[in-house]
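Troubleshooting entry. The earlier prediction with glutathione gave an output that would not parse, so I re-checked the input for stray whitespace and re-submitted. Clean input:
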Amino acid sequence: MIVYGSSISPFVRKVLAFAAEKGIEVELKPSGLGNKDPEFIEASPFGKMPALRDGDFAISDSSAIVTYMEALKPEPNLIPTEARARARTIWYDEYADTILFACGGKMFFNRLVAPRFLGLPGDEAVAAKAECEELPPLLDYLERVIPDSGYLVEDRLTLADIAVASPFANLAHINVAVDPARHPRLKAYVEAILARPSFAAWIARETAFLERSAA
Ligand SMILES: N[C@@H](CCC(=O)N[C@@H](CS)C(=O)NCC(=O)O)C(=O)O
């Protein structure tokens, strides 16, 4: 299977970590912003990463891709089948992909993507407002809902944890840390999920790439 994109995108990293946890082998085909490669555009009509190709089947959107992977290879189960647990898992995936990304993306785009990769000035006022005003209540929510088990749903790893933890790697890349005084439970949770080999290998590569691009 081919995954198009860069693991620096939280959506692509989510798909890569999900595949690794499932034991599904994927090849990452770099496809950056503005990529017009017809193969990529066929898989992702609006040019967004990630996209997936599996033989003659192509699909985009991280949630669609992990749904496909889960159906192809049901074990280990990462999208629960019990009604409430499944709904909760999809809620956390949605929270990460829309609510958390809408906020984190403002920081990551304006502080890193725009100045370093697009040659554009980032809007620091937008990034600072996101960090100081929008982010804390989103993290307060996670601090309240993370169970003692350290997993959001069914006290075991699911898509919920993979989706929610992924954007925190982006925050770490721009040195936005979880405050251990205000969010101790969240800090331990994020560290544990991102330390899993399914994430750690990709994050190490991203860090090396970002260090080279800053030089
Ligand atoms: N809902 C989509 C979001 C994908 C997305 O917005 N990806 C961004 C990178 S983080 C992208 O490709 N942006 C380029 C663009 O919008 O042209 C998913 O879950 O895959």
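This one parsed fine. The longest strand covers residues 51-54.
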